[in-house]
C-alpha cells in the first residue's frame, strides 16, 4: 500500500523510521475498516515521487488529447469571467466560425421580399394581423395581389403600402414595398418637392440616376434621396426588383443645410454592437447619428440567437419595423407577438416595445425612426 501523505483516510502510522531524502521506506501502521483495527506493514513513498508520477500521467493524457481532431465547426470565443454579477463578460462572442444554425449558416444575411399571389379558398382565416391604438402588425401573408396599388408615372410597377401618415397614430412617414418588373421604373418617381426618401433593396437590382450619375443598388443596397434631388429609378436587369421606399416630409431648420445623397450597401458597413451585449444586439447605421441635418434614420437591427431588448423601450420616436430575416417574439404595448421574416410592425410614439430573439438563426429588421427635431407645438 502506497501513501502520499494526502490520502491517509483511515490509516494511522504508529512507527515510521525516516527514510533518506527522496527514498521510499517502510512503516508500521494501523488500518480501520468496517469498525475493525488491523496492524500492517506500510510502504511509504515520499510525496515528491507521487507528484512526479501524477505529472507524468498528466503529460501523457495531454499529449493524447492533442492528437484528437478539433471540431472546426464550433468556435465560440469566450471572454474571461468577471467577478461582477452584472458584467456580461461570460456571454459568448459570436464569430465568423460560429456553428451554423438549423436554418443554415448563421452568418449569411438574407432579405425577405413578398411575391404576392392569393391564398386558396381552402385556407383558414386565422392569422396574426392586428391593429390596435398603439401598434399594428401586418404579417407577410397579407401581401396578396388584391391589396397592391399603382402610382402615376411608374411603369410595370406595383406596390404594397404598409404605412402612411395617420392622425392619432404614426404621423411622420409612409413606407411602400415596391415591385418593379424588368424594364420598369419611373422618370418622375417623387412628385412632392418637399419629400426625402430612402430606398432599400431586398431583391434584384435597381439603377438610380441623379445628376447624370448612375448608381446600381443590389440586395442590401441603400440610397438616401434628399428633397428636390431629381432622381429617377429603373430596373435594367432581367429579373424582378423589390425594394422598400420610405418617404418623409423633410423638416428644414434655419442654419442647417440638407444632407447629401448617399448610395451604400449594408455589406460594406460594420454593425455597431450595443454596449454590454458582446455582439448579441447590433445596429447597422447608414448615416452618422451625430449629423443633425438628418431628421430620420433607417437602420438595420440584428439579434443573435438569445439576444434581447432587456427593457420596455418607451420613447417619442415612431417606428416602422420590417423583418428581413429570422423570427422572434416582440413585446408591443402589453402584448407578446410572434413575428417572422416578411412581417411588418408599425408603432406610434411611446408604444412600449421589447424583443426576445430565440433563434435558431439571426433576427434582423429594417427600422425607421424620426429623429433630431423639436416637437411641433400647437398654436
Automatic annotation (TrEMBL):
Gene3D superfamilies xrefs: Jelly Rolls
GO molecular function: ureidoglycine aminohydrolase activity
Positions of the Cupin type-2 domain: 300-364
SUPFAM superfamilies: RmlC-like cupins
Superkingdom assignment: Eukaryota
Pfam families: Cupin_2, Cupin_3
Annotated signal sequence range: none
Entries under InterPro entries matching the protein: Cupin_2 (IPR013096), RmlC-like_jellyroll (IPR014710), RmlC_Cupin_sf (IPR011051), UGHY (IPR017627), UGlyAH_cupin_C (IPR044697), UGlyAH_Cupin_dom (IPR008579), UGlyAH_cupin_N (IPR044704)
Record domain (S)-ureidoglycine aminohydrolase cupin: where: 169-250
Designated name of the protein: Allantoin catabolism protein
Organism for this UniProt entry: Metarhizium robertsii (strain ARSEF 23 / ATCC MYA-3075) (Metarhizium anisopliae (strain ARSEF 23))
Amino acid at each position: 500500500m502506497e501513501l502520499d501523505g494526502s490520502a491517509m483516510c483511515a490509516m494511522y502510522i504508529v512507527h515510521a523510521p525516516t527514510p533518506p531524502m527522496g527514498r521510499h521506506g517502510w512503516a508500521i501502521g494501523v488500518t480501520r475498516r468496517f469498525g475493525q483495527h488491523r496492524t500492517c506493514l506500510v510502504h511509504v513513498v515520499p510525496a515528491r515521487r507521487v507528484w512526479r508520477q501524477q505529472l507524468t500521467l498528466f503529460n501523457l493524457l495531454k499529449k493524447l488529447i492533442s492528437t484528437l481532431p478539433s471540431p472546426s465547426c464550433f468556435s465560440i470565443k469566450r471572454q474571461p469571467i468577471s467577478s461582477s454579477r452584472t458584467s456580461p463578460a461570460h456571454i459568448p462572442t459570436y464569430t465568423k466560425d460560429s456553428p451554423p444554425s438549423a436554418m443554415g449558416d448563421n452568418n449569411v444575411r438574407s432579405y425577405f421580399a413578398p411575391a404576392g399571389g392569393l391564398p386558396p379558398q381552402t385556407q383558414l382565416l386565422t392569422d396574426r394581423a392586428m391593429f390596435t391604438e398603439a401598434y399594428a402588425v401586418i404579417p407577410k401573408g397579407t401581401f396578396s395581389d388584391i391589396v397592391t396599388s399603382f402610382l402615376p408615372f411608374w411603369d410595370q410597377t406595383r406596390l404594397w403600402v404598409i404605412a402612411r401618415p395617420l392622425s392619432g397614430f404614426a404621423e411622420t412617414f409612409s413606407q411602400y414595398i415596391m415591385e418593379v418588373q424588368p424594364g420598369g421604373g419611373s422618370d418622375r418617381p417623387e412628385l412632392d418637392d418637399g419629400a426625402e426618401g430612402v430606398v432599400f433593396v431586398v431583391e434584384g437590382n435597381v439603377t438610380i440616376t441623379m445628376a447624370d450619375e448612375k448608381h446600381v443598388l443590389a440586395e442590401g443596397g441603400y440610397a438616401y434621396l434628399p428633397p428636390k434631388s431629381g432622381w429617377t429609378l429603373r430596373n435594367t436587369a432581367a429579373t424582378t426588383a423589390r425594394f422598400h421606399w420610405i418617404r418623409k416630409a423633410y423638416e428644414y431648420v434655419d442654419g442647417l443645410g440638407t444632407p447629401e445623397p448617399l448610395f451604400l450597401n449594408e455589406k460594406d458597413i460594420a454593425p455597431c454592437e450595443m454596449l454590454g451585449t458582446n455582439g448579441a444586439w447590433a445596429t447597422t447605421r447608414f448615416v452618422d447619428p451625430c449629423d443633425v441635418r438628418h431628421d430620420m434614420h433607417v437602420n438595420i437591427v440584428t439579434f443573435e440567437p438569445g439576444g434581447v431588448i432587456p427593457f420596455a423601450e418607451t420613447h417619442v420616436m415612431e417606428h416602422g419595423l420590417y423583418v428581413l430575416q429570422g423570427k422572434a417574439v416582440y413585446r408591443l404595448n402589453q402584448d407578446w407577438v410572434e413575428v417572422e421574416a416578411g412581417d411588418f410592425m408599425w408603432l406610434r410614439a411611446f408604444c412600449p416595445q421589447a424583443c426576445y430573439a430565440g433563434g435558431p438563426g439571426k433576427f434582423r429588421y429594417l427600422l425607421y425612426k424620426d429623429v433630431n427635431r423639436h416637437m411641433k407645438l400647437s398654436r
